[in-house]
Amino acid sequence: MAVSDISLALGNLYIAVFVIGYVGAITPGPDILLILRNTITFGARSAFIALSGIACGWVVYLSFVYFGFAHMMSQPIAQGLLSIFGAIYLGYISYKILRASSPSDLTQILGVQEAKPAGFFHALFVNLSNPKAILFFVVVVAPFANQGFELGLFVLFCSLVSGFVSVIFVGLYVRKWLNARVFLWIDRISAVLFIGFACSLGYRGVDIFLH
Questions:
Q1: Mean pLDDT of 72-93
Q2: Domain extents for the chain?
């Protein structure tokens, strides 16, 4: 195969990786829900603080893939422990949100409006609590195992960031049409969805250990 053909094939793969990563980023899940909630309820500053935490989680997972630790993370015991930990943490967040009586109370509880480490670490822990992410990264970058591996990882990271930034801008546009009552219901709905994600992760973790 000619060099030009190889370059074209790799280019098409990079485009495919970007599209897959972008679509995967905006697919409903704990990460995107956290970003959307932060954006609509608290604004851009909180959203980008949370995004920085989530992005650090991606770096951790991509590092596992790059250095060959993905196999370790895919072991049943690691998957089970991370799933159970994630379920507990998401359940804790849901409990705090549901206890809040107003958006201002939520700000104090979750610490996501001010530029404080709590917002960053909340997002980081939510991201790392999903062990299926490492498998997603492995599958997406598998075509680059022999060549273009580093660039493939970089393209995937950029696609994920692009997807989340798009959601932030959409959230900022929608935000100006909402009032405090709607913000509160957004928090309550988010809490219920977090409970759903927590139950799903918890069930998966327990099922892994039972089988």
A1: 74
A2: 3-210
